[in-house]
Specification:
The protein is mainly alpha-helical and about 600 residues long. The chain is built from 26 helices and eleven strands. The protein has a three-stranded antiparallel sheet. It has a three-stranded antiparallel sheet with strand order 7-6-8. Strand 9 and strand 10 (about 535) form a beta hairpin. The N and C termini lie far apart (about 130 Å). This is F-box domain-containing protein.
Amino acid sequence: MPPLPKKVKMEKPRARSRAKSQPKKAKAGLPRGDLLITDGRLASILIMPADIVREICLCLHPRDLLSLCRTAKLFHGILMYRDFAPVWRDCLKQVDGLPQCPPGLIEPAYVSLLFSPTCTGCGKRATSVYWVWFARFCAACKQSKVVSDEAVAKFLTDTQRESFEDLKVDEDDEAEVFAQAKVSGYKRPCYLKLDLLQVLAAYREATDKNEFRQERFRVVSQCEQFAAECQDWQEEERQIQKEEKEIREANLKALRLYQVMERLCALGWSAEIDYLRERGLYALKNIKAVCVPKELTNNAWSKMRAEVVQCMTNVQTERLQHEFQMLLKRRYAVLVDAGNELLDRQFAKRPELLAYGLNTADLALQNEFRAIMCRPSDVEIARSDFLALDDRMDVIVERWETYIQKHLRKPVVKAAMVSPRAAGIDPLNLATTIFKFGKSDQYCNFFPFFTAFNCSLRTAPPGPRGSLRVLSPYERFVFEKDPGPFRHTGFATTRVVKPSPDVLAIIEMAGQDPDTVTAAEMDALDLRWVDSKNEVHKWRDAIAAASVENRTPGGWRLATPEESVKAKEIEFRHLQESDCRLWRCNQCSEPQAPMSWVHAEEHLHIK
């Protein structure tokens, strides 16, 4: 067994012997007193030249200078030295809009009043400043150091009360002789007890009462002016601090948002972040846990992660739909270019299709066109892709026409207004079959013109209702086009108008049977009718006008031959001035689509 080690006696370190010689004399201008330097970092300030110390202090805000003064006795002794009074004044001058230090206050006390939220009476925290008294009071000191105007009589002795009544000549002078302030918790203005007692004592000892009163007027007036200036400065300072706080919070929120986006990008949501940047990051900013003026911590991220990821999932769906809509928008422009050419070819073969209002949006809903529009995004769509459907256009248009007729026959059959004598006749072709949208009377019209009304069957997609089919994103895109496609839903209610007595009379004036006459037979008659206002109408316009419920019945007659000729001349001029595509060229070898009068003239001029 090895021998145990010997115990080593630990010696205590020697205390440094303090030099008994006198310390070196400090530079002129710096107080020494009995200050002891225990920190080597602070000891060097005693050997600094006074000018350097002053320059350092001049770079500080008065609030910082006051805090430095209260940090250690060393700094207190230096900064409260009489020769440093100009330094305090120069620091106060650097504060914009700050009133000068009032008489009766030294600069450090003024700085404490301005920037130190401590009670003047007890040193506790107090935020309310009473500038006219140069004081701050906490709740407890307010009770002991101020007295309300309505309680001053009870506070004063009889002798003091006599002096008080004698000193205030009238009610108007009271606020000028004694400094008053509004104090929270008191309904009436208050006096500072100490100030009140000192003024009354001085008043009793004054030899010239009137001169004393005038002096008090001047002193109180100065105090009130100083208080008003301080209140203005304080309000401006609060506004500045509020703005600075808002800027700090905004910067912290922006930093936290950036930190959240960094973590989301690390999780693979970069595409969604780029999408949100284009829209102001609204989705992330609406999350309460994200919009907080604090830096993001791991703990905070773990708490909000599930909510943020769910939000990004919704954003992803929105982004994909948006990209799909943008893709459709680009492709729809190509469809319009090619679709107009395809439609013109159909209109050249079947001009009556113009009355249906067949347009590009109707083509977009057909399966053949929809398949091209909904191809993958990496497939380029060209004009030729749509023109390749020209061989199937006859089938597509016939299918579309059958679809329209099917849905318009339903309300006619449901209304049960077709006479049995009209058996074998398509009810859509009867001259008495009139449609309107909902309860609105001004949109009465005949088939097939009614299908072209944007206000009737070409309406916006319906709202979410259980009885209506939910539209796909593609269908919503097409229905938002102007002009929109034909549609027939419960939302766009189509009504059949019951023939009024005037409608029946108009048809009978032409020598036709209202139960069986067709629109084509009425067109072949080429007659005109005159209403009670002597306005001439074609038969369609006359029946549509007579179908309005609020119209006064009667007053219709057949137009004379002279009236008909004149009306036809006016109608021809109107057709020439309109944009209606009613004219076809008989000189062309290939059938041409109907065109307006202006385009027809240009076409003939070119020919």
